[in-house]
Design brief:
With 288 residues, this protein is of the alpha/beta class. It has a single domain, classed as Rossmann fold (3-Layer(aba) Sandwich), CATH 3.40.50.970. Helix content is 41%, strand content 11%. The chain is built from ten helices and seven strands. A five-stranded parallel β-sheet has the order 1-2-3-7-6, with helices on both faces. Strands 4-5 form a two-stranded antiparallel ribbon. Helix 1 runs antiparallel to helix 10, helix 2 packs parallel to helix 3 and helix 4 packs parallel to helix 5. Keywords: Thiamine pyrophosphate. It comes from Pseudonocardia halophobica.
């Protein structure tokens, strides 16, 4: 049953559960950030709604077995943007693949949760990330391999708007379209910010939606901090059977913590020691 087929009350309940999951993912990310005193917290807070829609326990889009992250029938979720690892760890903890207590080890020696995503260390981490522009090419190869084997699993690749600066991303986009890989979906986090500054000032990527369509993809653009809109976008994508799809998600860095949403130099966000507790309170609607 697709989300749009759910009765109104059931859909509203699902949205509420996923919104609650997104809040927990944000809390998990803040907990890990406080362990190290740093991290890509702004991105984790911004993309939490997207990850909740994929990993929300019992409600998520992904077909997976949390207790068996290498199950052959699983949908593959690739973290092309390895510096978003803190966000994916939080989602994997929410899904039950990573024990919640383990997030306290984030970035520590011998931890399975290094500060950049590494598939050799972390259950549920499909690829190692770091250098941008690799993920979609890997997704293309996975999609081809799964189709060749007759495996109905899907491949989702989370990448950033800054990653659209990389030529290898567009080479992979052409290859996916050429091979008609309907089992591949790109998920683009458009937060408008890169290490060197606002995305439009580094390299103009708009109009993003039209560019993907020109490359032969079915493109859907939504508010990435609106669970209802995300579900509707995935409903539309699920019906595509002849071409790859892209879900373009406009998100706000630091979402849910107002004093972080407005912070400058938010790519690698400085957070003072006393601000971690205030950030948790803000997520819970507690005023200080």
């Amino acid at each position: 049953m697709t989300t749009t087929a759910l009765p109104t009350t059931a859909r509203a309940a699902k949205i509420a559960r996923l919104e609650a999951a997104a809040t927990r993912i944000r809390h998990h990310a803040l907990t890990m950030g406080e362990v190290q005193g740093q991290g890509y917290i702004g991105q984790a807070l911004g993309v939490a709604d997207v990850l909740a829609v994929f990993y929300g326990r019992g409600d998520g889009e992904l077909r997976l077995r949390p207790e068996d992250p290498e199950w052959d029938g699983r949908d593959r979720f690739l973290l092309s943007i390895g510096h978003y690892a803190i966000a994916l760890y939080a989602a994997l903890a929410e899904a039950g693949t990573i024990p919640l207590a383990e997030i306290e080890t984030y970035g520590s020696d011998d931890s399975r949760l290094p500060m950049s995503g590494m598939a050799s260390y972390t259950p549920g981490m499909e690829i190692s990330g770091g250098s941008l522009g690799h993920g979609l090419g890997v997704a293309c190869g996975m999609g081809l391999g799964l189709r060749h084997r007759g495996n109905p699993a899907r491949v989702f690749n989370l990448l950033s708007d800054g990653e659209l600066d990389e030529g290898s991303t567009w080479e992979a986009a052409m290859a996916c379209a050429h091979h008609g890989l309907a089992n591949v979906t790109a998920v683009v986090d458009v937060n408008g910010l890169q290490a060197d500054g606002p995305t439009p000032g580094v390299l103009k990527t708009e109009p993003v939606t039209e560019k993907w369509r020109a490359f032969g993809w079915h493109a859907v653009r939504v508010d990435g901090n609106d669970v209802d809109a995300l579900l509707a976008g995935l409903d539309e994508i699920r019906d595509q059977t002849t071409s790859p799809s892209v879900l373009i998600c406009d998100t706000r860095t630091g979402r849910g913590v107002p004093f972080l949403e407005s912070r400058e130099k938010a790519h690698f966000m400085p957070v003072a020691e006393h601000e971690w507790a205030a950030a948790h309170d803000a997520l819970d609607g507690v005023q200080r």
